Structures are given as C-alpha cells and as structure tokens.
Amino acid sequence: MPKILVIDDDRAVLLLVQQALSDVAEIVTAETAAEGIERLAAGNYDAILLDIVLPDRNGLAVFFEIHELDRRLPVIFMTVEATSGTAIEAMQMGAFDYLAKPLEMKRLRSLVDRAIQQRELANVPVAIAADELPASRQGEIFVGRSRPMLEVFKTIGRVSQQQVPVLIRGESGTGKELVARAIYQYSNRRDEPFLAVNCAALPENLLESELFGHEQGAFTGATARRIGKFEQASGGTLLLDEIGDMSPMVQAKVLRVLQEQRFERVGGNNELQTDVRMIAATNQPLERMVAAGDFREDLLYRLNAVTIALPPLRERRDDIPELIQYFLSRAKQEFHKQELEGISPAALELLQGYHWPGNVRQLRAVIRRCVLESVLPVISPDLLPPEIIAPPAIRGAQETGPPSQPAACADAVQSMAAEPCANEQDNGQQLPALVDQLLAAQSTDLYAAGIAYAERFLLMRVLRETGGNQSRAAEILGITRGKLRNRIATYDIKLESGVKIGE
Amino acid sequence: MNNADHVPARFQAAVDRLDGSTELLREMAAITTEDIPHVLAACRSAIDAGQCTLAASHLHKLKGMLSTFESGAVTLEIQELVDLARTGQVAELRVRFTQYRGEINQLIQEIAQLAGEFR
Q1: How confident is the model at residue A139 (pLDDT cuts 50, 70, 90)?
Q2: Whole-complex ipTM
Q3: Omega of the bond prior to A248 within 30 degrees of 0, cis?
Q4: Rounded distance between C-alpha atoms, residue B68 and residue A498, angstroms
Q5: How far is CA A305 from CA A110, A234, A277, A300, in A?
Q6: Min CA distance, B115 vs chain A (Å)?
Q7: Residue B68 to residue A15, Cβ atoms within 8 A
C-alpha cells in the first residue's frame, strides 16, 4: 500500500487526512517540521502533504530539505493563506501541487491519487534522458535517420549547389523552412542573403509589393520607394512559403522572374534584373489547384524541376525518440529545469503511438509544454495533452451524443471536444451539452474545448455555404486564406465531395 | 460516509467539504475544542505583549483551525488581524482583536457544541 506522510500542526487536519485516505494509503503523521524530517529519513514514502506554516520551521524551508532527500517525492503544500503569491512561489519551487485550506475530501483524494501515480511512474528508469546534446550534435539542422529523411538529406546534397528552383512539399509542421535553409547553407550562396516570405500571410496587393517593391505613389500609402524581396535577395536565396496561396496575378510575375530573372516594381516602368535562387514550399495539392484553375500550370512546371517531399511525422516514427530527446534537451536548458531527468516509458509509448497531425512542430510544442509544466524529474503521461492520452478508439470515436456518465467518461468527452466531430449534420447545438459535461467531468481545459467546437462548426458551415471555395470562405470569415487553410488542416476538414471531417 | 444528523446551517459548507460526514465534522470539532483554548490564549498573550511576529503566527494557526468549520466572516476578520500583526500595527491590532473577540468566541462555542453532541 502506498505510504503518505502528513506534516501539519492542526490535529483536526491530520484526522481529516487519515479519514480521507486510509482506504488507499498508509498515513503517517507529524505535527512539527523536525518530527516530519525524522519520519521521512526513517521511512519510504510515496507522497508528502506539508503545511506551509509549521510551529518550528517554515514549510517552504522544509520542502527544500525533503527535496534533498528525495527529488522524485511529490510534495503537496497545504495552507489557509491561498494567495496567488504563495501558490506561485510553491509551484516555482517545484511543489507537486498546492491545496488551499479548508481541505475538501474529494480534491484531496484526487490529488493524492495523482501524486501516487506520478510516484510510480517517476520511479521507473527514464526511457529517454534529457541530457545535454553532445557537441557533435549541437549544430545539427535536422534530427532524424529514418529512411524517408535520409532520402531528403541526399536530395538536399544533390541540388543545393545547383542553380535550380526547388519545390518543397509537405504537411504543415514537417520542416519545410528547415529544408530551405539547409539548401541555402549547403549552396554556394550561403554567404549571401536568405529571405523568406509567407505568401499566405499577406493579401495580394501587399504580397506583390513585398516581393517586387513599389515606386513612390504607386498606390495610396506608397509615400516612398520600397525595395522588394526579389531585389534584396539578389545573389542570394528567396523562400516563397505557402506558394499555393499566391494569387494568379502575382504567380505570373513570379514566373517571369523564374524564366528571365527580370521584374518591375509595382507602379514602375523600369525593368530590373535580379539573381535569385528561388525555393518554394507548399502543403497544398498544386496539381489539383492547376486543374481547378487556381494555380498556373507553367509556374508549377518551373518549380517542379526539383521536388523534395517531406514525410509527415507518422511516416517516420523511427525518428520520434531522437526528436523527443533533442527537444527535451533544448527545453531543459531554455527553461532551466536542471533536475529534469527525462521521459517515462509510458509517456514515450503514447508519444510514439500518436498520429501527429501537426507533425514535428506539434511534437516540439508538446515536449516544451511538458518540460515547462513538469514538477518531478520524470515526465509521465499525465503531463501529455488529452488527445495524446486518449486511447485510439476514443480518438476515432464516431459518437454524436454525449456519454451518459460524464464523470466516468471525462476523457471521452474531452476527446469529443478536442477531435473533429464526425457528424456532418452537427448544427452547432451541442455546445451547451458539451460544456455541461466538461464541467461535470471537472475539466480544466474547458475554454479550449469550447472554442474548438465553435470554431469547427463555423468553418464547416461557411465552407458548405461556399461549396468548398476557400477564397470566398476566407473573405466571409474575415481571415486570410492561410489561416483558413491551417484551421482546415487542424480540424481535418475534407473538401472532396461536400464538406466533412476526417476519413 | 453520509450521515443524516443535523448540523447548524453555518457548518453546512464544512459538511459538504467532508463528503457529507457530520460524524467526521463532530470528531474534528472535539479535537479543535481541546486545542483551541491554548492557541487563543497564545494569541491574546502575544498581542498584549506587543509581540507582532509571534502574534501573527498564533493568529494564523487560529485561522486555520477555525476555517475548517467556517470560512466566512470570522476567518476574514482573523486574516485582518494577521495582516495587522505582520505589519507591526500593534495598537490597531489590539483594538481589532477586542472588537472581533466576541464573534471568534461565539464560533468557538458553537464548535464546542458540535463536539459536545459527538462525545
């Protein structure tokens, strides 16, 4: 049976804790700091409940002493002074959690249960250590040795020194910009500028000006001549990211640069010469866009001379452990988490099994958040986001209605909120029920879940209205096409025949 | 652990925190009734002697003990006393302590009654 040490000088609190936890743990009590430390040194415990104000010493000082004896021991602070300052200080020091008095039995049991689980998980050897990377790996651009990535590296090696445009294809978050930078760094233009433009982030007229520059007076607000990226990057390399979002008019001008290395500024008459190595990147099906008339076929032919296809993370799972180690090490240094040892086998298994719709970028974000929120030396599954913890059956659930036992199905409800709703006919009226269930399940992610539900419904509704036309949909929604595209990918909205989620 | 015994309305929130167990509440009341006179006396003594740091410590403990049963006006008043003690405002501390003693004693008596029904 787990063993809990409770250090508090209020005998009524000691009684409460004994009554609340005696079914699940052996409870040992101490009424002073000295007694508590003595008991701790004499026994093995799975968690400690510690009053911040003790008669003989400050509880925070006692915490340091406990920490010295066993860094993996979860310590839960208790205090009647539940100010934000105290809570923040306690968590900064590395407390597992913080209980405000008067104590509530439900909350107490839930927290201690979590602490015991964490203790069990933290006691296993780490699966991946958060060690500092060896010097030989410090300057690595890429992490990965899977076969698909080796092919990418080989292609980079073949084309980097050639004066040909490159088209990098891959889902969002796969590292397209990294590939572009690698091509640049291994090219003979590495001492010249590398510039990047996100074509989805700017409306057409601003994008044109950004790329080609403009003359004074070319349009309202053009109070001075502006030098565009094609001119700035002359001799160097220019990355056109999300090139699928470029309007046909700008596509035509870019094509001319590709063909002749010539262009004019907006509002200008002079033909200018440049010498730019162009790299384009996209996560969109350009061939389909050509068929739909949204992308120029001749431009695609020019860009397609060399194509590098980046695999989604789910197709290079062999690289996941190495990526995790890389991000762990970096985050440990960045957030000064010197005591972080690594990640547990259980957490690693969940990370390896997830399908990663956001790819490497998403993995990096998850690891960074885990490191930031970790209070024990080992990262365990409870620090992972709900969508990663939920079993595959629930992740892919086709349920349209809420479970009848929300408290018991908190994870299922969370997943229903986090994952795209599979019901095409969802009329957006499930939000109140969803909120009620998440409240009953004591969710701590209610805002994100609610916003996700509302946003998903809104996008689906507008896209149905426009028959899947994203340009029109973006206009109605008042957002850029790039942002719309990102949200479509996030919610896995398919625009093939009708608008639906997933499949 | 649910117990159908009646408790005064001011302790209902405490019962709810204990998952509805009035028996546990009464048992805790018995312990508190035993221990609190010493704590209250220590508060009084420290305040009378103008020992603010000591007074703050004892008042903090008093607050913790009483908040188990009721976390309303009385505990807010005790917190006010703690703050006065921590900022060394001895004169004001004495005045307020005298002012709030009646309510504090009233709560202690009611807790004792709760305990009395347990014994």
Answers
A1: low
A2: 0.93
A3: no
A4: 59
A5: 59, 21, 13, 9
A6: 12
A7: no
